[in-house]
Amino acid sequence: MGTPDIGDIHVVDNQKAKIFSGAYATQVVCQNIPAYWPMALLMRLPFVFRKVASQKPGCNGDSCATQ
Q1: Exposed, middle or buried by CB within 10 Å (0-12, 13-18, 19+), for 24?
Q2: Residue 67 predicted with pLDDT over 80
């Protein structure tokens, strides 16, 4: 994936061997921090996810596979 730009978010899931970036990484973080669960629920709505995704570019699809 290379070096991320300042402000980019990346989440590494070692158990699933995946790297999430952009809006997908934001969603993973929200799902794992109880205080952000309401945001995780909102991000399941397609129009909310698209809005967040337009501001946080990342991999196409739901994740990037690690090698």
Answers
A1: buried
A2: no
